[in-house]
Design a protein that fits this description.
The protein is 44% helix and 23% strand. The protein is built from 5 helices and 7 strands; from the N terminus they run E-H-E-H-E-E-H-E-E-E-H-H. Strands 1, 2, 3, 4, 5, 6 and 7 form a 7-stranded antiparallel sheet that branches. A hairpin with a 6-residue loop joins strand 3 and strand 4. Helix 3 packs antiparallel against helix 4, helix 3 crosses helix 5 and helix 4 packs across helix 5. The protein is globular and about 70 Å long. The termini are far apart.
Length: 202
């Protein structure tokens, strides 16, 4: 298992502090999952929810989201069976640098995955596109999210290539089967022609 740690902000604390995250405290455990809420997904199709465990029940509550600068890459990282979890560093919340504003919570997150290639890609994406201490516009800003460069799509492509391997094998088998069927049809047709010739000669 390959892993690395990075300081990441949980965005949207101003939304959740009066509901699901009233008891925010240092060292509180968090984990990251792909967002399933339609409203959140309409804002960011690659939204990844940050969750804490319910105080009394075996459920996890959404208390924030991964910054949009890297949410896309976190989304595909999780799709690749990666794991993201960590803890709250402190309760020294800060104002988010994005135009929409709001509050952020400092987290220390650990990214873990079995595949070395995905590990290196994800570590590079986080390093290049996000800096928790930066107060201005991040390198991976929302305005740049429409960029479909090969580098930004590598995790997605990696996943698609792996998932399609079985399909490609199946297609090859189907093609071989079709060729065999065509050869058999041609052989039968030849036999029919020979039989016809014999009948005509008789």
């Amino acid at each position: 298992m390959y892993s690395f740690e990075s300081k990441i902000a949980s965005r949207g604390y101003h939304v959740y502090r009066n509901s699901t995250w009233q008891n925010a405290k240092a060292n509180q455990r968090v984990k990251v999952e792909i967002e399933t809420n339609k409203s959140s997904r309409s804002i960011d199709p690659y939204a990844c929810a940050i969750k804490i465990k319910h105080q009394y029940f075996e459920t996890w509550l959404t208390v924030g989201h991964i910054p949009r600068e890297i949410s896309r890459h976190c989304y595909f990282f999780l799709k690749e069976e990666g794991n993201i979890e960590g803890h709250l560093i402190s309760t020294d919340f800060k104002v988010s640098p994005i135009p929409a504003g709001g509050l952020e919570v400092p987290l220390l997150l650990k990214f873990s995955v079995k595949r070395e290639r995905i590990f290196h890609l994800m570590k590079q994406f986080v390093s290049d596109l996000y800096d928790y201490n930066y107060c201005g516009e991040q390198k991976g800003s929302e305005e740049e999210e429409s960029d479909d460069s090969d580098d930004n799509e590598e995790i997605q492509i990696e996943m698609i290539d792996d998932n399609s391997s079985d399909d490609n094998e199946k297609e090859s088998e189907d093609e071989e089967k079709n060729i065999d069927e065509e050869e058999e049809t041609q052989t039968n047709a030849t036999k029919d022609d020979i039989s016809k010739d014999i009948i005509e000669i008789d």
